[in-house]
Amino acid sequence: MLVKLSNVIKEDIKELSKEIEGQLKKLEGSRVLISGGGGFLGGYFLDLIDYCNQNIFETPCNVICIENFISAVPQRIQHLQNNQYFEIVNQDIVQPLNINKKVDYIIHAASIASPTYYRKYPIETIETNVMGLKNLLDFGKEQGVKSFLFFSTSEIYGNPAPEFIPTPETYNGNVSCTGPRACYDESKRLGETLCVIYFQQYGVPVKVVRPFNVYGPGLRIDDKRVIPDFFNDALHHKKISLFSNGAPTRSFCYISDAIKGFMLALLSNHDGEAFNIGNDEVEISMLELAKLVGKLVGGVEIEFKQSNDDKYLIDNPQRRCPNLTKAKNLLGYYPKVNLEDGLGSLKDWYEEVYMGEYEK
């Protein structure tokens, strides 16, 4: 399997580091604990810090990555295995931490985010989002960390009424506590409550980010979310399968834009606050998305099918689009990668990694 760092990701990291170099320098000489560092989002944090160590920092940043690889691919971060500034710990974040080093920043990115996988592992999903988070909050309190970042989700909003789209952080949500998505949605909501309480009672400098449909290189082609599903069909010369009528809409955010927003939040002084991080430029239907993927790959047809999963569409939001006013005003966050360019980069990555040097 491919263990070198993808060229597509290298270019993303290089451009991203230029954009926020001034903020990233706050990490110089520090130690960062990242849970879920082998995952889609966590892996980018590791690669970004590695790039900064090589090209920006005079005093390197050290990283402790905690990962149990329940939904991550070990090969994603294997190129860092022997890096002297990275310690990769194979552990479930729910278990007691055994870390005797001073930690300055904590990023809790461990989570099972794909509906297919969190419905397969509902208890583990809840435990990671609540018990794992509490473990880290307690550790952060003891360490007196400079900042703590919790990954929530846009799923906490559920299925907003039209008047709440684009959706602001002040919207309280329309979420089922017993439906097939509840293990993920409700544990993330409780996670946010924990974060706010630890800030209010103990002064832990927590920031919460709510990602809106992030995609890009590093997202497994077998992840079972819509964009990898479409590419999996198209790149294997199959018809792109739509398991709905194609009408639901989403606003997708390219990974480098998302990581920029996450880092700006982590390195800000807006403790106890939650931020939408996404792209508000285009809200696209699933049918139009399928057409766009088909166009990028070339010669791909689309078919409407019924899912074998009878709960596939239950509690599936009809629309999702972020209001980014707060992130723009307080963080200076502005996404810049348009959807077609981002999908093109993801296509290049899938061809390099999955269709090229190895088949997953």
TrEMBL record:
InterPro entries, alphabetized: Epimerase_deHydtase, NAD(P)-bd_dom_sf, UXS-like
The keyword Lyase appears for this protein: yes
Protein name (Swiss-Prot/TrEMBL): dTDP-glucose 4,6-dehydratase/UDP-glucuronate decarboxylase
GO molecular function: NAD+ binding; UDP-glucuronate decarboxylase activity
Keywords: Decarboxylase, Lyase, NAD
Cofactor: NAD(+)
Residues annotated as domain NAD-dependent epimerase/dehydratase: 32-278
